[in-house]
Amino acid sequence: MNNSENKRLYDSKEKQLKSLKRKGNIITFKNPIYPWGTSGESRNQIIVHSLQVFRDGAVRIIGNSYDTDWYADIDKLLDAIDWQWMEGAHQLVSS
Fold it and tell me: Source organism's superkingdom (predicted)?
């Protein structure tokens, strides 16, 4: 294996935040989310359109078809995302 194969995609908060802000990126959550406008249906992924931050620090992902719930702060949002699963899936795609 060479160094590019060992490269971690989401091993820092900065890389994770960059992923949340990248338009068109697919984010996968640990638990299903129930976005407004989906008639009670759950989702576990969202396609990023933008990241919205409120004055008090609350944050949510604005998606192409639906938005996530509000999270109290960016750390709570980052904790809700399944970075381990995304790392594995994206490593397979990039190899």
Answer: Bacteria
pTM: predicted TM-score of the whole model, two decimal places: 0.81
Among residues 47, 90, 52, the alpha carbon closest in space to that of 69 is found at 52
Q: For the chain, what is the total number of helices (H) and then of strands (E)?
A: 3, 3
φ, ψ for residue 14, nearest 5 deg: -60, -40
Question: 47: how many CB neighbours lie within 10 A of its CB?
Answer: 14
Give the integer Cα–Cα distance in Å for 38 and 2: 44
User: For the chain, what are the domain ranges?
Assistant: 12-94
Is residue 27 very low, low, confident or very high in pLDDT (cuts 50, 70, 90)? very high
